[in-house]
Amino acid sequence: MHNIIKVFLTLALLSILIFAYGCDSKGKAREAEDKIILDVDVDEATEGKLSEVLKYTGILQPIKSVDLGPQMGGIVEKLYVSKGEQVKKGALLVKMNPSQLKQAEAQYAAIEKEWERLQTLHEKGAITQQQYDQVQAAYETAKAAYTLASDNTKIYAPFSGIVENISKEENEVFMALGFGAGGSGIITLVNIDTMELDIHVSDKNINKVYVGQKVYITVDTYSDSVFNGVVSNKKSVADRLSGTFEVTLKVPNTNKILESGIVAKADVVIAEKENAIIIPQEAVVSDTLAFVVKDNFIKQRNIKLGIQTEKKAEVTSGLNPGDLVVVKGVTGLIDGLEVRINRNYSSSVNQGVSK
Hints:
The chain is α+β, with helices and mostly antiparallel strands. The protein is built from three helices and 20 strands. Strands 2, 3, 5, 8, 10, 11, 12, 13, 14, 17 and 18 form an eleven-stranded antiparallel sheet that branches. It starts with a helix and ends in an 11-residue tail after the last strand.
């Protein structure tokens, strides 16, 4: 009887242990089933140059442009250049028919002899002052006409440049009426070694702009290239109609690939830093926090920001290059939370030129 009781107690104890183990296993399994791991997208904090800029657009124009033609009408006798040709300063471009020059020269020579003869008579008192003054006036008029014809028979390049346009052909008549007052000349000469563009800056931003300031220029034709320019002039009086200030930008065109008349985008640099730690704006939480993923767990970091652009932000403290920051799935994150990386943007913050 005693042995039977002992066996019964042993069996009961084993049953209790088995039941307890089963309950514990089910609890752990249920706990594992209830655990939620959030998916997050991350990007890498990188080191590079970041620029804060004011963005504008404008039309590229050559630094020098001039319409060339004679100040008196005539027939184009000879063109020495063609459109698109590069010329040196002082090169002969156009020769006008010399008939007017010959006529003016003959008239000048004749009146000069008469003036010299009457000058001698005037010194001797043989003619009146009125007679002398009339001849003197005629002499000065003839001399001026000869000088004008002489200066306008041949047209030379005032500077080295490119022939942008030729509006007349050989043996065609050129009318000087209106030339210099909006009318076109025979040849348009430009110097595109340096290009300019005008932008219009609001009163809100004009104090951020100064002569000598760095500017980045881009054009659609060369979308992968950035041309470095500067602010060359800044008007101190706003336009009455627009209320904006005209600012002129200058950009070297050493290879002469920038063309006149095309639209250019200008980024006026108001702040810039080399070797900045850069993250996407999506990773910034309330301007003071960022969430870093390390070994699939969230590490909350307090950060301080420097230069900020529309898409990027400089972190002056709190992060290191290479840190993986959460850019999507930030809601609900806390320090120490386990997460699963859903997508890595592969350092997109440092693709292209930082601005």
